[in-house]
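Exercise: predict the fold of this chain.
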Amino acid sequence: MSGQLLRTCDAGVLRVTLNRPEKLNALTSEMLGTSRNIFEGAATDSHVRAVLLTGAGRAFCVGQDLGEDGVGPGSDLGEWIERHYNPLVRAIRSLEKPVLARVNGVAAGAGANLAFACDIVVAGSSAQFIESFSRIGLLPDSGGTWMLPRLVGHARATALAMLGTPFSAKQACDWGAIWSVVADADLDAECERLSQMLASAPTKSLGAIKAAFAASWRSDIETQLERERDLQRMLGGTHDFREGVEAFKQKREPSFKGT
């Protein structure tokens, strides 16, 4: 594993840590490729039932390291995006397991949009998000033009992208961009609590919820009703559905296995 990225897995929680604290976790092609491989591998790893993505040090991630070859003026940025960023975003969004982002400090540019690509985002009270692309003559990538309008609405997304104005964790939460804000001192404990909850939940159920919500943006109601029917049929045959019903009848906590 690259020193720029840390990976640990314990009690069903896969922890992925961006690890360039001296560079505020600015992204390199190595980090992006390794992250993609980790998320793609998590899809078929039965030991992984939830993923926690975070950054080491005082920032979550400030986006692309602009000092890396291939991203300067005259470079084919479209080819760079297609090779390094799009596969990672697709891997996060298509993973049929929950992904929790722990945002500490600044999340800027692609760093902000990678956080927004996760299923649940918890931020420390001092965290800030910045769609900083227009400051260097670019537009939001890493799914930003798709996710941000859906999270905060067209008007806010447009202003945030065009002005490059930082917005606080509280604003992000109030606008619906993230799930919650906690005191910086409580961030680790809260993310640990949530990641354990997700890892002990019925994994196939959570994956189906994620897939159904994602598909709903491009579906009419009839198509979505049919999708719900098909996914519910699949879930009805799982161990966890049987366990959930038995636990409900017996008035006890269920013990889900993720199968």
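Check your answer against the key: The chain has two domains: 5-199, 203-250.
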